[in-house]
């Protein structure tokens, strides 16, 4: 079990290092390297648009990897997703700039972001189910949190890597410094593959195989028999993705543009991700005792209550303001929701289509919540002349929608997975 949880955590951390490294670079680098000719405001919007492409591809990755994960097994898909992610991220680090090869540079950036999105779309479902389907019932939430915790851990690594090379490369950061963290991915992927190849297939899938049941097309099966579970799971999961995008992507860009020190912002982002890890494990353990629904509802209501205070702190242009905002939004609110969410979503589906159904709900939420939020918020800011009131309305609406969705689902904490 220790090896399985380590595999889920380390593998997810490496894949999310790659995926979230792009998000940080989209805030600080790509608008200046690939879209500099558009002007500051529209360059940032275009940079966030390429970020969204990866999130749009995540449901596709969830469907493709989910299909084969439900038919061939979880383990094979985890190994394949990691290989694809490593190739895409390394190529981003080698990509020439727009000044060097013209329009081909941003086009290639979009294609490689699509590759990243497909890979990470298949990653989460496999890593979460590998932990959940091996774990005893009373520890499922805590076990699933190891797969989810890989996200903040990868974000920490990505933010620290960019911060380190921003400091060491100085004025050359936009020339070569930003590239090194992307190239490091090749080494990390090799380490992750060694760990993943040593774990066994899940007992739940082995029982399904032994039963000899005629296998249906997982996507058709999910949409025919579990559409409500997909819709409600997607709505509930969107809440923490919006928190993540508001504080760690859009918030980083706004804080730096308003005068906060870039290295300080990146270091604070890494620190807040560590807090997210701690809160994630605590809330997952709490959900094993109290149930998934009470913890998720509490986190979503807290996010709605703190929306405007967090937005004001992000916009005040100081390190301490950004630090407090990201601790509250990323560390506390996101952490509370993030801990139980993997088990909550997976428990809504039967074994025969769990990889596909859980991935469709979770990755659909990532597309809507994390992929489009930076663009939506940047657009709302432009529409209001830099105001935050409309942004706050958007944030609160997402949190309250999550509360309604969670209340409408059945509690799965004591549900047998087989």
TrEMBL record:
Its main location: membrane. The keyword Transmembrane applies. GO terms for molecular function: transmembrane transporter activity. The chain crosses the membrane at residues 35-57, 77-95, 101-121, 142-166, 178-197, 229-252, 264-283, 295-314, 320-339, 360-382, 388-410. It is a multi-pass membrane protein. InterPro entries: MFS, MFS_dom, MFS_trans_sf, Sugar_transporter_CS. It is found in: Cell membrane. The keyword Protein transport does not apply. Keywords: Cell membrane, Membrane, Transmembrane, Transmembrane helix, Transport. GO terms for cellular component: plasma membrane. Residues 4-410 form the Major facilitator superfamily (MFS) profile domain. PANTHER family: SHIKIMATE TRANSPORTER. This is MHS family MFS transporter. It comes from Arthrobacter cavernae. The lineage of its organism: Bacteria, Bacillati, Actinomycetota, Actinomycetes, Micrococcales.
């Amino acid at each position: 079990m220790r090896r399985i949880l380590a595999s889920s955590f380390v593998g997810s951390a490496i894949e999310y290092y790659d995926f979230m490294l792009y998000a940080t670079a989209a805030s600080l680098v790509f608008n200046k390297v690939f879209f500099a000719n558009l002007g500051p405001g529209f360059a940032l919007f275009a940079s966030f648009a390429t970020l969204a492409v990866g999130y749009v591809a995540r449901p596709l990755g969830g469907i493709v990897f989910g299909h084969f994960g439900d038919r061939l097994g979880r383990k094979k898909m985890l190994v394949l997703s990691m290989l694809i992610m490593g190739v895409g991220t390394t190529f981003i680090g080698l990509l020439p700039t727009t000044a060097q090869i013209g329009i081909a540079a941003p086009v290639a950036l979009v294609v490689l972001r699509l590759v990243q999105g497909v890979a990470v779309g298949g990653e989460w479902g496999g890593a979460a189910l590998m932990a959940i389907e091996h774990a005893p019932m009373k520890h499922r939430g805590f076990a699933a949190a190891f797969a989810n915790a890989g996200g903040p851990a990868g974000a920490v690594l990505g933010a620290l890597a960019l911060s380190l090379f921003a400091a060491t490369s100085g004025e050359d950061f936009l020339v070569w410094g930003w590239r090194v963290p992307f190239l490091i991915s090749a080494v990390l992927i090799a380490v992750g593959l060694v760990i993943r190849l040593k774990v066994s297939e899940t007992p739940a899938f082995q029982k399904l195989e032994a039963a000899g049941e005629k296998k249906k097309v997982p996507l058709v099966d999910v949409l025919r028999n579990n559409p409500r579970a997909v819709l409600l799971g997607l709505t509930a999961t969107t809440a923490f993705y919006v928190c993540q995008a508001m504080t760690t992507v859009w918030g980083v860009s706004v804080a730096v543009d308003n005068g906060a020190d870039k290295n300080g912002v990146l270091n604070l982002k890494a620190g807040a991700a560590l807090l997210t890890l701690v809160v994630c494990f605590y809330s997952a353990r709490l959900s094993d005792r109290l149930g998934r629904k009470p913890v998720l509802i509490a986190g979503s209501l807290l996010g709605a209550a703190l929306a405007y205070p967090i937005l004001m702190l992000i916009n005040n242009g100081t390190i301490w303001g950004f630090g407090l905002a990201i601790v509250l939004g990323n560390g506390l609110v996101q952490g509370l929701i993030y801990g139980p969410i993997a088990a909550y979503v997976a428990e809504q589906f039967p074994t025969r289509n769990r990889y596909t159904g859980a991935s469709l709900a979770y990755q659909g939420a990532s597309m809507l919540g994390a992929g489009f939020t930076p663009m939506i918020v940047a657009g709302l800011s432009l529409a209001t002349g830099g105001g935050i009131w409309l942004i706050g309305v958007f944030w609160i609406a997402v949190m309250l929608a999550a509360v309604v969705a969670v209340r409408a689902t059945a509690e799965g904490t004591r549900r047998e997975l087989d």
